[in-house]
Fold this sequence. Notes:
Layout: H1 2-8, H2 10-18, H3 23-44, H4 60-78, H5 82-117, H6 123-133, E1 146-148, E2 151-152, H7 156-167, H8 178-188, H9 201-209, H10 224-234, H11 237-245
Antiparallel strand pairs: 1-2
Helix pairs in contact: 1-3, 4-5
Amino acid sequence: MFYSQCSQAENAILDSLNNCMQPDSLELCVQDVQELITMAAEKSIPLKKSGYHKVPWWSVELFCMRKQLNAARRRYQRTKNSVLREVYREIYFQIRIKYKFKLHESKMNSWKSFLADITVQNVWKKIYTYGMKTNFTKRFEISGIEVSSSNFTSSFEDTIDAVLKKSFPCDPISHDNSEHRVLRSNAELVYESDDDVPFSRTEIAWVIDNLSLNKSPGFDRINNELIKKFHNFLNCQERTSKIFVA
């Protein structure tokens, strides 16, 4: 690419050099050559892009501490004097301990901040955005979400109950109007057909076990991972079959 850019103007520059008779003309030819080289380099030589961290817990302070740690390690490894090498070794290990402690503290603070933003309404959106779109490969467990003002769930079971109550709210008969009562009565009628064979427990268990993970949830905001954990949590295939048949 660089040579092709230069070869396009090679003949014109050689002709101007051959016809150059005055010092001023020679200076102009030199400027043309410099501009040609600069233009060809800009079009053909890629610029080095400095890398950046996509993780939310990375900060400028950690960047500076890592630079200091690398410098201390290089100084320790390149020192030939045994006495100075031992001194630099102690300094390097002290800096490394501080860096690891700060790194762990930054990760924990970022995780706590992430959990504080999770609610019943946006729990699956947070997981999808935080885990899939940012290529965050580490898997994490949801331990608590906010169910009301300053109230959080304390276990995985409570989290499942809160999400299910939000996704499947109560539907009492007292709230039905005339159309709803007709629909409810029709839904409760026993409908039998040879084509509509009820799902067996074995079929349901096989389908749940073969669900693919890392898939975004649908409109119900329940992903496949939660379905698997919910199935194991119930530990009762009869109740699970009623849910999926319904």
